[in-house]
Structures are given as C-alpha cells and as structure tokens.
Amino acid sequence: MLRIFSLITISLLFSSVVIYSQDDDLLSLLGEEEHIDYTTASFKTSRVINLHSLENTAPGVMDFKISHRFGTINSGIQNLFGLDNASIRLGFEFGLTPHLMAGFGRSSLEKNFDGFFKLKLLRQSGGKRNMPISVLLFGSTVIKTATFQGNPDANFFSNRLFYTSQLIIGRKFSEGFTLQLSPSYVHRNLVTTAQERNDIFALGIGLRQKLNKRITINAEYIYVPADQLPAGLNNSLSIGFDIETGGHVFQLQLTNSISMVEKGFIAENTASWSNMGIHFGFNIARVFTLWQPKKM
Amino acid sequence: MFYIIVPNKHYFMKNLFIILFCIAGLSTIHAQKYFTRDGFVHFYSETPMETIEADNNKLNCVLDLATGNIQLAALVKVFHFDRALMEEHFNENYMESSKYPKASFKGQITNIANIDFEETEKQPVQIQGTLTIHGVQNAISTQGSLWIVDGKIHAVTAFDIAPEDYGIKIPGVVRDKIAKNIHIDIKLVLQPFEK
C-alpha cells in the first residue's frame, strides 16, 4: 500500500513537472517556422564607391544620385586641392521589381549619357533556403555626346557607344563585413589610338566594413591585366566612407578615377595614387518612394 | 511508520485508478490549447513630422486555457513598411534584427477563470507578462477583449511601449520623427491545437 501511495505521489509530482515545463515554452508546440531569411543591407546603397554593389534600389523607389569628383589633390592650394574643378554625374535610378533595377545618368565628363540595368540572379539567404552568395548581372550603355574628336569620317552615332557587362558576386560575411567580386567586360566601338583595345576584361573587388550602425568604410580596386591598357593608364583604386543619415546616404571618397561610368573608371584612369594624383569626391543618394509595391 | 487499514485492498486500488483516470481526463480537457501562426500585429508612431507604421501577419501565439498562460512571438524581419528604407533602418539601426531576430511576449490572462469560452460577445481580459524586444525584457500589463466565433477564439489588444525602455537608441537628428510611445495593436484568431 505504501508503495502505491509513493507511486501516486511520484507520478503526480512528475506530471505536474511535465505540465509546468510545457507551459514554460508553449510556442515550442508550433515548431520552428519555415522561413527564407534573405540577407539584406550588404551595402548602404547601390554603389560600393564607383562600382555597383550587391544592393538594388528597392521596388517602387527612385534613388536620385548627385555625384561629384573634384580635380586632383596634387593640383595644389591654388586650385584648393582640386575643389575648383568638379566633374558631375546626376543619376535617376529606379527599383522596378524585387529583382530588377534600372537607371540613367548624365555626366559632365565627355557629356556622357548612361543607361543601365541590374538584375539579381541569386540572393544570399539562410533559413529555409540556404544560399551562400548573391549574384547580380549588370549591363550599361554609355553615349558620349561631347564634340567628336578625331577623324570626322568616323563620326557615326555607333562610334559614340560604349558597353559594359558585369557579374557582381558577393557575400555579406557578417553583420559588418561584405566582399564582392565584379568580373567585367567593357566594349568600345571606337578607340582613339591603335594601342587601345576595343575589348577590355577586368576584375573589380569591393568591400565594406561597418564602423558603427551608420558609418561604413569602403574600398574597391579594379584590376585590368597590364597588356590590355596602353602606358599611362592606371587601375582604379578608391577608398571611402558611407554615412547614412536617415533619408540620405553620403559617400565620401578618394579615388584615382574621375569618371563615374563603368567604361571610364575601369579603363580610362589617367590619374594615379603614386603622385597623389587622386580626386576627392562624393555621391549623395536620396531616395523617394514613388509607388507601393504589392505586398508579398 | 505510516499505515492504513483497508478492508479490501483490491477494492481500494480499483477506486484509486478510477479517481486517477478521472483526474487525468479532466486535466486533458482543461489543458486544451489554442494557437495561431498568422496573428496580426501592427505598430505606429505618429509625430507632426512623420508617421511610421508597419505590420506583421505572421505572429505566433499559443494560449493554454487551463492556466491562462499565453505566449506570442514575431520575427522582426517580417514587419513590412510601406517605405523600403524605413524597413531597412528599422532592422539595421533600431531593432538590430540579425542580433535579436524575435520579439516575444510571455504571460498570462489573469482573469481566465471568469471567461466563458462559449460566449460570442466581447469579454474583457487582463493580460500580464514580460515583453522582450531588442533583447530587453520589461513587465507589461494591458487589457484586451476576447470572443468566440465558430469554435475559434478571437482576441484583440493594444498597448503603448517606449523604445528607450528596450534599449533602442534614437539619435538626435531623427528624434522628432519617432514618437516617444509606439502604439501596438494585436489581433488574433486562435484555433484548437491538436497534436
């Protein structure tokens, strides 16, 4: 009989323990949710510095970009270290769908008009679908509208066109650190000298490290194999900061590229870091919501 | 030593088992739980400068009718804003959703004993418990109401919270755009939980 009582007591105790532990975590009854956790905010904006980043403008949003590159720092105090001399690009860039953005811009340098698209092919994600990297496809066309230099017989519209195709492959390794590679192909319908090639293959590398929630340090380098560029042209190297202030992202940088379109900053850099022939510059990004994308 | 004289051992045991079975049976009825995986939570912050709002319709909730214990959890990343940039800043700068992916509540309906789970009219409920947001826990208590439609428990509640109570720092430049108190609305339709 004693045995029965102790059995009952123990079983009652045990059952109350079981009930208690269930109540302590009721939500575990529902199990883990199946959810695709897409990686977001790999970069603060759609550019690393000059290179396009892993980020697209969100659907329904227009990103108005005002970018300046000043003269070279080694032009001295008389030119206020280059600030007297500014090259400007105004850009209007649109998020069309969650995967596609497109935009156009106009640069004062060479009076270039540029149009581009950027398409997300793979999105880095965790959870239900594990995808270690993001891959994007980028394409742009530049129309050089400056007064035609050189043989007037070659002054066709097609000879003013430049094309860039790029894959952007990258990964946000941690909350703070993102790295991307940008294998690029630039095609120029017309080059000015026989030493220059019509086709250029290059590899860009871009990274960012968060310094705090709102400030990141960014760097990029674009490697063009030496045999593809004539003497006097240099690979692009840029370092800068992104400062996000709510509605704006300010990107401040030092770069040896004056051009803000791909064909220029990949293959036409005359300035060099070696003699401080670098440019101070900034990009200001301001976003406007134009329409509401459909809720997913 | 403790000893009981029982005229018929087997008779006693038989009764005991009946009693035990009854207890077990009762407890299974009362232990009935209700749940949802797609509860709705909406918050808004209103200042003369800006209205900020977002919603999440993947709120998880389990309610235990026997004890009145109620638990809720929402993934922070699932909150949807009309403006994409706000959503990014919400996750990146304020909620730090990669570090603190979930917001949750663990508590109790304190007047569960007075609630009629057949009643189709709204009945007031008192809720008390711990709200965890941004990794910071705070005790909260609030009111709501509850009613039954077609065997499902409908429940609503609303309350205000202050971001600073949850360690969410708001920098000076945007302080005028984000309200001191954020209003939160919750709507749930809970169905019986069957294993």
Structure characteristics:
heterodimer; A: 296 residues; mainly beta; Porin; 12-stranded antiparallel β-barrel; two-stranded antiparallel ribbon; 44% strand; B: 195 residues; alpha+beta; Lipocalin; 8-stranded antiparallel barrel; 2 helices; 17% helix; 47% strand; elongated
Q: Low-confidence segments of chain A, ≥5 residues, pLDDT <50?
A: 16-22
Per DSSP, what share of the residues of chain A sits in E-state strands of 2 or more residues? Answer: 35-45%
Distance between the termini of chain B: 45 Å
Write down the secondary-structure element order of chain A.
Answer: HEEEEEEEEEEEEEHE
Global outline of chain B: elongated
Tell me the total number of β-strands of chain B.
Answer: 9
What is the strand content of chain B? over 45%
The CATH architecture of chain B: Beta Barrel
Tell me the CATH superfamily of chain B: Lipid/polyisoprenoid-binding, YceI-like
**Tally of distinct domains of chain B:** 1
**Order of strands, widest sheet of chain B:** 1-2-3-5-6-7-8-9
Structural class of chain B: alpha+beta
- Rounded radius of gyration of chain A (Å): 27 Å
User: Which fold name corresponds to the CATH topology of the largest domain in chain A?
Assistant: Porin
What's the gist of this structure?
The complex is a heterodimer of chains A (296) and B (195). With 296 residues, chain A is mainly beta.
How does this model look, in words?
The complex is a heterodimer of chains A (296) and B (195). Chain A is mostly beta strands and 296 residues long. Chain A has two domains: 1-31; 37-289, monomeric porin ompg (Porin, Beta Barrel), CATH 2.40.160.40. Helix content of chain A is 10%, strand content 44%. Chain A has two helices and 14 strands, in the order αβββββββββββββαβ. Chain A has helices spanning 2-24, 262-267, and strands at residues 36-38, 61-72, 86-95, 100-107, 112-122, 125-127, 134-144, 161-172, 177-188, 199-210, 215-223, 236-244, 248-255, 279-289. In chain A, the strands form two sheets. In chain A, strands 2-3-4-5-7-8-9-10-11-12-13-14 form a twelve-stranded antiparallel β-barrel. In chain A, strand 10 (199-210) and strand 11 form a beta hairpin. The longest helix of chain A is centred in the N-terminal third of the chain and has 23 residues, at 2-24. Chain A is elongated. Residues 16-22 of chain A have low confidence and may be disordered. Chain B has 195 residues and is α+β, with helices and mostly antiparallel strands. Chain B has one domain (33-192): Beta Barrel (Lipocalin), CATH 2.40.128.110. Chain B has helices at 9-30, 84-94, and strands spanning 33-46, 51-64, 69-75, 80-81, 102-109, 123-133, 136-149, 152-161, 182-192. In chain B, strands 1-2-3-5-6-7-8-9 form an eight-stranded antiparallel β-barrel. In chain B, a hairpin with a 4-residue loop joins strand 2 (51-64) and strand 3 (69-75). The longest helix of chain B is centred in the N-terminal third of the chain and has 22 residues, at 9-30. The two termini of chain B are 45 Å apart. The relative contact order of chain B is 0.17. Mean pLDDT of chain B is 87; it is low at 25-31. The A-B interface holds A 1-2, 4, 8, 15, 19, 23, 25-27, 29-30, 33, 35, 37, 40-41, 58-61, 95, 175, 213-214, 245-247, 287, 289, 292, 295 and B 2-4, 6, 9, 13, 16, 20, 27, 31, 33, 35, 37, 58, 60, 62-64, 67, 69-73, 75, 77-78, 80, 82-85, 88-89, 91-93, 98-99, 104, 171, 173-174, 177, 193.
